[in-house]
Amino acid sequence: MTSKFYKLEELHLHNCKNLCEGGIISFLSKIGEKLKCLDLGSNNLTLSNTDLMTSRFPELEEFLLISCVNLSETGVITFFNKIGESLKSLDLTSTNLSLSHVHLMTSSFPQLEDLILHDCPNLQEEGLISLLNKTGNRLTYVDIYLSEGVSGDIIRDLFPGVTLDVFA
Fold first, then answer.
1. Distance (Å, whole) CA 56 – CA 44
2. Distance (Å, rounded) from C-alpha 87 to C-alpha 64?
3. In whole angstroms, what is the distance from residue 150 CA to residue 166 CA?
4. Domain ranges of the chain
5. Coil, helix or strand for 74?
6. Strand runs labelled E in 22-149
7. What integer pLDDT is reported at residue 7 of this predicted model?
8. DSSP-assigned beta bridge partners for residue 164
9. pTM of the full structure
């Protein structure tokens, strides 16, 4: 199967509610090397088995998990550790993540430009700051609008050049 997908650069599985967790992990293990965009938004995935993925994602530039409310904190962090340093945009809009396990990340996102955490009710300021500290100086936009557990003040202090959308 790998030979048919070896050039696949974008995979959009948005709103595929019946995805099998094991199946998607197995499939991503086979195609991850060349992916530039991965959209798993509006799915029932937990990503709790990402430690079983054998592939890394060295060229991934855009990762979308919009409205994935069942995500496992540790599963997401394990996935983050498989993403290469090419990631430019991370969209976790409307997830229930707190980012409390970011300290377990062994990778960093030096190319990250856009971090979207719009409407994340469980988002914790400590987790967000830990994630921001794993980004490089290319970060230009952070959206924490409607994520009431986070104040924009500390982010403004730490990252003065970043455009910030916050809960008003």
1. 22
2. 11
3. 8
4. 8-165
5. helix
6. 37-39, 62-64, 89-91, 114-116, 141-143
7. 84
8. 142
9. 0.93
| Residue 83 CB contacts under 8 Å (≥ 6 apart), including other chains | 56, 57, 60, 63, 107, 109
* Three-class DSSP category at 17: coil
Task: Compute the distance between CA of residue 92 and CA of residue 64 in angstroms, rounded to an integer.
Answer: 6
Residue 98: how many other CB atoms lie within 10 Å: 18
**Could you give the CA distance from residue 115 to residue 74 in angstroms, rounded to a whole number?**
19
Strand order in the sheet with 10-12: 10-12, 37-39, 62-64, 89-91, 114-116, 141-143, 163-165
CATH code linked to domain 8-165: 3.80.10.10
Beta strands in 6-161 (DSSP E): 10-12, 37-39, 62-64, 89-91, 114-116, 141-143
Residue-wise pLDDT tens digits, 50-77: 989 888 999 999 999 999 999 999 999 9
